[in-house]
Specification:
Oligomer: single chain
Shape: globular
CATH class: Alpha Beta
CATH architecture: 3-Layer(aba) Sandwich
Helix content: 40-55%
CATH superfamily: Response regulator
Number of helices: 7
Radius of gyration: 37 Å
Largest sheet: 5 strands, parallel
Length: 173
């Protein structure tokens, strides 16, 4: 199954170039030319990854796409694509998993996308695994423990004195 990527960028040249590079590399790619279109596609389809430009119709457009991706029930990996790098703290606080700075060499871009997808898939598999359950002893061991009688400690009983009858005393006197 091909992994699906949504590219969101208002520059048509960037969209077409990245789409071609990713499709040649085996990805199924959808594109959106605005944050509004990207958010609509996120609701209509499922993606393994979203790559969005930061500044499109507004300076916050990329953050809006990231927020929409983070609220999607299928939890895609999210990369912020920008020509204007921001601090790691800023792009992480937006909710992105990775920042990709354009222009970028194709080989490096593909390596970073593959790494991000692999780490994100590993994180998702950890989330989907049930919590470990404490092991219970085997039924045979429990039954054997119940069937084995515990040794009873013997109590020391003081020796009994013979009891004299009251009538016997009266006769002696």
């Amino acid at each position: 199954m091909k992994r699906r990527i949504l590219l969101v960028d208002d520059e048509v040249a960037v969209l077409l170039t990245l789409k071609a590079v990713l499709e040649i590399s085996g990805f199924d790619v959808d594109t959106a030319a605005s944050a509004r279109e990207g958010k609509h596609k996120l609701r209509a389809h499922e993606y393994h990854m979203v790559i969005t430009d930061m500044r499109m119709e507004s300076d916050e457009a990329g953050a809006e796409v990231i927020t929409a991706a983070r609220t999607a029930s299928y939890h895609p990996a999210v990369a912020l694509l920008t020509a204007f790098p921001v601090s790691e703290e800023d792009w992480q606080s937006m909710g992105a998993d990775k920042m990709l700075v354009k222009p970028m060499h194709t080989r490096i871009l593909l390596e970073q996308i593959e790494k991000l997808l692999a780490s994100h898939e590993a994180k998702l598999s950890i989330w989907s695994q049930p919590a470990p359950v404490a092991k219970k002893p085997a039924a045979k061991k429990v039954a054997a423990k119940r069937a084995t009688p515990k040794p009873v400690a013997k109590k020391s009983v003081p020796a009994k004195r013979p009891v004299k009858k009251a009538g016997a005393r009266a006769k002696k006197k």
